[in-house]
Amino acid sequence: MDDKKETCRRCAGTGAFITRIENGKPKGPGGICFRCAGKGYQTDADHKRNDYYDAHIMPARVMGLI
Ligand SMILES: [Zn+2]
Prior knowledge:
Layout: E1 6-7, E2 20-22, E3 25-27, E4 41-42, H1 44-62
Antiparallel strand pairs: 1-4, 2-3
Bound molecules: zinc ion.
């Protein structure tokens, strides 16, 4: 097993885009988890992309810049 692969916490390894947990089951609008690109686990490349997103894209959206 490659220890660089880490189960995606955003989608609990399902690879699906989840917005909430309902009765212990993941629910969401469907589509692919953007955190792991639908793989269900995150690699170093995914971590880098997510770190960039959290540091730059998300704050800009929250502030209404984009
Ligand atoms: Zn995921």
